[in-house]
Amino acid sequence: MKKLIALIVLTSVFVMANAQEEYKLTGSSVKIDGTSTLHNWTADVTKVSGKLAMSDNGGGVNLSSVNIEMDVYSIKSDKGSTMETNIYNALKAKSNPKITFQLTKVNSISGTLADLTAVVSGNLTIAGTTKAVDLTVKGKQKANGAIEFSGSKKLKMTTFNVKPPTFMFGAMKTGDDVTITFSATFTK
Q1: SS3 of 15, please?
Q2: What pTM, to 2 d.p., does this model score?
Q3: How far apart are CA 88 and CA 131, in angstroms?
Q4: Which helix (H) or strand (E) holds 173?
């Protein structure tokens, strides 16, 4: 009986030490950079939500889930409302108003919460098309306990069945390549 009680206590301590804590996205910056035959362009995603679950057992960080959701209609372009309308149409915003990322696998994590690098895989859904992507992110814990992750990813719009927008009856065309640069702050 004493062995059983000791086993239960040890199991409880192990589970508590490795318990995943849920963090909510409390701040973000998502920038999309692209090109066109006329000029380079930038757009910011202004409405992003999400959460993650992770633990730090002193010996290393364990990341078990990440879910991010971006509102397509919150994308604001430095080139104005005409560009925004073309972005919404290209992203099929009426039928697919969200861009989502869901973690599927942690390939590696090195470092501690103070300074870590993670290579992860996940499902990215844009304009109704889901593709597996790999991301390398940097993470650091802030003085208030919040955790900030940042990184960037180059993508081809056509990979997600997005036709690069054209303007002025096709005289101006956007490039297929875009770079997404992001920073996300999560708080318990």
Answers
A1: helix
A2: 0.85
A3: 20
A4: strand 172-187
